Fold this sequence. Notes:
Blueprint: E1 2-3, H1 4-9, H2 19-38, E2 45-46, H3 52-60, E3 70-73, H4 76-82, H5 87-92, E4 114-117, H6 123-134
Parallel strand pairs: 1-2, 3-4
Helix pairs in contact: 2-3
Amino acid sequence: MLDGDNVRHGLCGDLGFSAEDRAENIRRIGEVAKLFMEAGVIVLTAFISPFRADRDKVRAMVQLGEFIEVYCQCPIEVCEQRDVKGLYRRARAGEIDHFTGVSSPYEAPDIPELAVNTAEGDIHDCVRKVIGILSQGDNAII
């Protein structure tokens, strides 16, 4: 499991949140995920990847069927309610620039392999759906 916060502290610690830096963040994690995949490891990634073009570039790094895009749908109001770090509050106060959903756009996937509505479904249902799609094939990058 590659988590966005963890990767931001190490591998991508030199990047900010501009559109260019976000693209580079996703490119780097795509390369790392590909390396693990080539070694036979199933890779799950948990990132806010707001731009379709960046997700498409990572998809293009691997063979057809080796990338599963899971779109976690959730209204911004629910995201703000769940925000234990207070980042949305800080972004709305102008303390954080380029914050996805507040001062920077989010481009929802056109046709993700899976969409789960995390505001309506409980965590167990969402997890079952992810496991279900994984068990359908030999997929490695999510």
